[in-house]
Amino acid sequence: MKRSIALFFLLCLCACGGRQEHLLSGKTMGTTYHIKVVAGRGFDAAAVQARVEACLEQVNQSMSTFRPDSEISRFNALRAADTPLAISADFLSVMRTAQEIYRLTDGAWDGTVDPLVNLWGFGKDGPLRRLPTAEAVERARQAVGFDLIAIDAGRLSAGAFDSRMSALLEALAAEPAARLPGTRRLANRARAAAEGVTITPALHEEIRALIDRPA
User: CA 79, CA 75: separation in Å to the nearest integer?
Assistant: First the structure.
């Protein structure tokens, strides 16, 4: 009997000090989220939920197209192709992943198709009222293509990328028998600009033969 009572109290102590399931939930991005956490008695549910909310808010502020001041909305609002935009590390990660998927699929997946999506009535502009003209489709296509987006490594690294690349190129150029791509072409171009281009008799005959060849 004493052993049974002792075992009962031991089980009660283990249950009181054991791990429990905590449910965190809330609203975000037009839907809801639900998180289950199994943790001990020291678990601070309010603090963890505050961190979750802060993380979701950060994602929203970066990637929500429903917020006019979000990173992606400011990016989409750019009108000139050469306008720079400073972005966060998270936004950069998404852009580089999208760029890689675009490359791997040879453009079959393209994250820049929003102008065409809207034109055909599937975007935020609402349903299609009339078929777009061929000219409108062509104008929209001119604004589509992930290869139109440039990621400037120099700006992202605050100049470190340029300095490291310069040091690397100088080290390569200093190696015996090393030649950087384009070095010979640039040297020939500079010599031609200074001294003119020499055409040998043999080359002149080849050019004349090409000109005189029947079409």
Answer: 9
What whole-number distance in Å separates Cα of residue 23 and Cα of residue 44?
12
| Domain that residue 35 falls in | 21-63
pTM of the full predicted structure?
Answer: 0.54
Type of residue found at 17: G
Q: Residue 119: is it exposed, middle or buried by C-beta count within 10 angstroms (0-12/13-18/19+)? A: buried
What domain count does the chain have?
1
In a domain, 55, yes or no: yes
* Predicted confidence (pLDDT) per residue in 146-159, tens digit: 888 887 765 654 45
Helix (H, G, I), strand (E, B) or coil at 67: coil
- CA distances to 186, 200, 201, 204, 207 from 211, in Å: 28, 17, 15, 11, 6
Q: What are phi and psi of 19, to 5 degrees?
A: -85, 145
| Residue 42 covered by a domain | yes
For tokens 């065409």, the residue is: 116
